[in-house]
Amino acid sequence: MSGMRLVDSHCHLNLPEMKADLPGVMARAADAGIEAMVVPGIDLASSRKAVEMAERWPGVYAAVGVHPHHAASWSPAVQAEIRALGQSPRVVAIGETGLDFYRDLAPRVAQVESFRSQLDLAAECALPVIVHSRSASPEVLAELETWAARSHHRNGRPPGVLHAFSGDLQGAGRAIALGFLLGVAGPVTYPKADDLRTTLSSIPCEHLMVETDAPYMAPVPHRGCRNEPAYVALVACGLATALGLDAVELASRTSGNAARLFGWKHDDTNRNLL
Ligand SMILES: [Zn+2]
Fold first, then answer.
1. Which domains does the chain show, CATH number per domain?
2. How far is the CA of 132 from the centre of ligand 1 (A)?
3. Residue 109 burial (10 A CB sphere; 0-12, 13-18, 19+)
4. Which among 147, 228, 250, 265 could disulfide-bond with 245, CB atoms 3.0 to 4.6 Å apart, if both were Cys?
5. Ligand 1 centroid vs 250 CA: distance in angstroms?
6. How do residues 43-62 score in pLDDT, each as one tens digit?
7. pTM surpassing 0.90?
């Protein structure tokens, strides 16, 4: 898969699962053609860790925020800390935030409050937002539409991404109408994911990015194992096949979309991750 220029737009290098062999993970990412990676926080501690990593590794950028699973920890004090972290030039987004009504690890009312508050914080910081949505698509889209109606930020640049997109075409259309990008992850390679591939096949490439969501959701043939950024090449190949595009072309175009969303220059990403 040489010749690909890739971005992993969502990987949790800040989690314990990645810690033991991080230098190897980074070396394999560089070998796979990855030029930039975005590491989202899931709570305050992992957001701090994401910023630390982004300040240390040239190709790593951070997002700071509180995942819906940890929404009960959201408070004015945490908000103030996330806002302060957002001042780092290495922070390119707020997130990941959103709603998860599948696992319901935090009370839904807390999830909604934390999500709204982080959407407003993104607007205040003029940063895009990374959105997690699971079994909550109507609620997430309604929140995003309400937010878009009340806030004018980013001057026409994309307001965010629905990461690990798994919704239907109608949901995709509503997100795209708001200017959101869709992040495509490992499931695009799963044998039974024909519905997802069919949905994606009718979405123009300009609205798509690729991601691993490492350490979770490894693509075929690593499904069930720990995921890592190098495998984003497999996601890109799976998506290219679904779209009927050449994989090198798809990789380049989705990397350009990531640059547009996160605000780094496409030709300016660090060719040497290490
Ligand atoms: Zn994630």
1. 6-268 (3.20.20.140)
2. 7
3. exposed
4. 250
5. 22
6. 999 999 999 999 999 999 99
7. yes
